[in-house]
Design goal:
The protein is of the alpha+beta class. Helices cover 36% and strands 20% of the residues. The chain has an 8-stranded mixed beta sheet with strand order 1-5-6-13-12-11-8-7, sandwiched between helices. Strands 2-4-3 form a 3-stranded antiparallel beta sheet, with no helix packed on it. It has a two-stranded antiparallel ribbon with strand order 9-10.
């Protein structure tokens, strides 16, 4: 008696639709003079973000990591050539399995030199218009600051709240286990539980995240004088599909952020990650002002096809490999 778990989990109809969407993405960048690059998925360095766990691959000459994003490698390319690139291929994140997560997934990441984050937002709108074939449901585009999102949902300014006030809110509204969490963790929890579900329908851009959530983006002063990050996220009908930055290109600041990530990792009893020296050397050499964004292609296709689970757009999701 044969078991059925060998069978692909995606219909032929979805596979055809996925192939057409992937082709339209490549055609979009070809028309816009962005060069596709094929990059290693194994590297000696990995991201230090405390909330991302990389797969480790044992090698006789030392451990290697499956890349969670091509970001570090692409920045090294851009520092040398000063031109625009995109990557469309596989990325990996351990411990991420669920309706919106698969440990192996398809990522689209691209960079535009001498362009800020708002230019990139507009280019994302153009890309979504192309891959959705101009459907009306994707013409509804909203751009909101992080502060606007909090005020709309909770009538409060997140930048003005103290860490203690955020901890108290999380303790009362989410759970007592969060009573001593970091400012970054509290803001993430509140956003995920109360802000994201209240976002308007359609395509939504949220920008000017708090300084503690800067990731690899530059910082600036907001109109109200708060220090905010030049980072944005993109949502389609409340599902996050993209994360973008006006990229940090200062090696000293980047080194400080690696150190800050490791401090948080130590507090969470997680393995420390060695700073990527080659990335720091590239920043020293000179990364031009540029913006970059990473889109989860499986999530994007899921949204475009009105499906509820990314496994529905993958022929062999994690549990069937």
């Amino acid at each position: 008696m044969f078991e059925n778990n060998w069978r692909p989990q995606t219909s032929q109809e979805v596979l055809v639709a996925r192939s057409k969407i992937i082709t339209s993405i490549r055609n979009f960048f070809s028309r816009n003079n962005v060069l596709e690059v094929d990059l290693p998925v194994l590297s000696s360095a990995t991201v230090s973000d405390p909330f991302i766990k990389s797969f480790t691959v044992n090698h006789p000459l030392g451990d290697l990591y499956l890349q969670s994003s091509p970001e570090y490698l692409m920045k090294r390319l851009i520092a040398e050539t000063k031109r625009d690139y995109y990557y469309l291929g596989k990325a990996f994140r351990a411990d991420e399995v669920g309706r919106l997560h698969n440990p192996e997934f398809t990522i689209l990441e691209w960079y535009r030199c001498d362009c800020d984050e708002f230019y990139l937002m507009d280019e994302i709108i153009s890309l979504i218009h192309v891959v959705s074939k101009g459907r009306d449901c994707y013409k509804n585009v909203t751009k909101l600051s992080y502060k606007d999102c909090y005020q709309n949902a909770l009538s409060t300014d997140p930048h003005a709240l103290t860490t203690m006030e955020l901890q108290t809110f999380c303790k009362l509204k989410i759970g007592s286990q969060w009573a001593e969490s970091s400012r970054k963790t509290c803001l993430d929890l509140i956003f995920n539980h109360f802000i994201q579900p209240a976002l308007p329908p359609g395509v939504v851009f949220v920008y000017e995240f708090p300084e503690c959530q800067a990731g690899l983006s530059k910082l600036k002063r907001s109109d109200l004088g708060y220090c905010v990050s030049r980072r944005f996220e993109v949502f389609i009908n409340n599902i996050e599909i993209a994360n973008g930055y006006f990229e940090l290109n200062d090696s000293d600041q980047q080194r400080e952020r690696f150190e800050s990530d490791n401090l948080e990792r130590r507090e969470q009893s997680k393995d420390l990650i060695q700073a990527d020296k080659k990335l720091l050397d590239a920043l020293d050499y000179g990364l031009p002002n540029c913006s970059g964004v990473a889109i989860g292609v499986d999530r994007l296709i899921m949204c475009l096809l009105n499906l509820e689970d990314i496994s529905a757009v993958m022929p062999f999701p994690w549990m069937y490999q």
